[in-house]
Amino acid sequence: MRSIRQRPGRFLATLLSAFLGAAVIMTFNSMHDTAGRPGVDPVSAETLRTAAGVVGGYGTLLVFFAVASTLTVNVRQRAAELELLRCSGATPAQLKRMVVGEAAVVALVGAALAVVPAVLGGRLLLEVFRDSGQVAGSVDHSFGVIALMSGIDITLLASAGAAFLALRRATRGRRRHGRARSFLAYGALAAGTAAVCSTFAFSATDGALMAPPAYGAILLSVGLALMAPRLLEGVLGRLAPGGASGWLAVRNLRQRAGDLAGILMSLILFTAVSTATLTMQAVESDAVAASGLVKSVDAKNLETLNFTVVGIIVVFVCVMLVNSLYAATTYRGREFGQQRLAGATPGQVLGVVGAEGLVLTVVGLLFGTLAALAGIVPFTVVRGDAVLPEQVFGVWAAVASIGAAATLGTSLATARRVLRTPAVRAVAATA
Q: Which of 75, 163, 300, 303 could form a disulfide with 103 if both were Cys (CB 3.0 to 4.6 A apart)?
């Protein structure tokens, strides 16, 4: 508690992630409470429970990844503090209880702040279902025990678990962690490949046609995201940058490849999931419109869920990117000060940061696009005649623009803010 009171700014990123995660989880799990009200017809209840189950599952994973990314950066920046506590007599168990306790307190505060927005969001979501005809107009919104307890429990468990893993990762050797990461990465790639290949076992009119390529693209993106440090090192090994800024940017990225894994993971997941889901949904909608058929209730439910899931992913990934980039760039205040004392101008420092952000953006978009195409191409081949649908270009351009703006904009804006501190003060403050 003393740590939180003395340095509340350190925990703002974790608080924001916990708040958004709890709000999303409570909003959609309130559909369970609504479906359980007396007088709700079976079709409406099924629609509400499906939305709550699917998006609630995605929300749980996104909360864990968002909180884990911010806590990992936080713990790494506190390496000197934690080592000083160890030298002062603190045991590893005491350090774990301290860090996990901090995360639990912040998670509870975030969940409490999310109750009112979740109630309003649940009512708005129910209105969307009513307007689209998926839920009867007589159904009233209910925010009950399921929504409240699921939001608190999931946010608390995700935050405590992410804090425990972040501290364990920082205090133990990377060798064992690297083996576990590689095992999970190859497993996700194998499962994703199998799911994508199973698309050819379905017919063009099958209602579940979109599921295998969509899940396959997600699993492939997870596998590539887990291999982010290795992928970044492989790309950097082939780069031959020109100019002092480019050379220094590549050198910095090589030294910090492991620390930048969270940022690259976010970009890969965001690009793959958004591009694959939106493109396949656009292809499906155009095919139904061309046939002159009217969408069924199940088709409308699937479309609503797809857009909702992508919207949640966009928000969470942007939060993860902004939090991770802001924390990582702010932490480099002393490095920037040393470069300026060595003769670099603020413009040259910004040039290095911009080059680093550009490389990260290109690498993230590249592998995210490959994972997305692995799901899009089989779906398009089975659903229609073309191999690569024309809808993918517009969707990819929008996704790439959002990812590039979040990465480059946050990096440059934060670096410009850090550079406002005089170089001598920046070096002395962190020496």
A: 163
Element (H, E) at 430: none
User: What residues in the chain have per-residue pLDDT under 70?
Assistant: 8-10, 56-62, 73, 77, 169-178, 240-242, 258-259, 297-298, 301, 429-431
Each residue of 168-203: b (16+ CB within 10 Å) or e?
A: ebbeeeeeeeeeebeeebeebbebbeebbeebeebe
Q: What is the pLDDT of residue 259?
A: 67
Express each pLDDT in 203-216 by its tens digit. Answer: 887 777 888 898 88
Residue 372 pLDDT: 93
Residue 197: the pLDDT is: 93
Among candidate residues 314, 306, 301, the one with its CA nearest the CA of residue 282 = 306
pLDDT tens digits, residue range 306-356? 777 777 777 777 777 777 777 777 778 888 888 888 888 888 888 888 888
Q: How many other C-beta atoms lie within 10 A of the C-beta of residue 101?
A: 15
Tokens of 159: 């935050």
Pairwise CA distance, residues 278 & 281, whole Å: 5
Q: Is 243 left (phi over 0), alpha (psi -120 to 50) or beta?
A: left
- CA 275/CA 310 separation, integer angstroms: 9
Using CA atoms, how far apart are residues 147 and 80, in angstroms rounded to an integer? 40
The Cα 266–Cα 141 span in angstroms is 34
In angstroms, rounded to a whole number, what is the distance separating the alpha carbons of residues 384 and 32? 37
**Contact (CB, 8 A) for 414 and 329:** yes
Widest Cα–Cα separation across the chain: 74
**Helix axes of 145-171 and 92-113: crossing angle, nearest 10 degrees:** 150
CA dist 295 to 255, 291, 298, 299, 395, Å? 53, 11, 8, 6, 22
Task: Mark 408-417 as b/e (b = at least 16 C-beta within 10 Å).
Answer: bebbbebbee
Contact 106, 18 (CB under 8 A): yes
Tell me the pLDDT tens digit for each residue of 293-314.
Answer: 777 766 776 777 777 777 777 7
Q: Domain coordinates of the chain in residue numbers? A: 1-172, 174-431
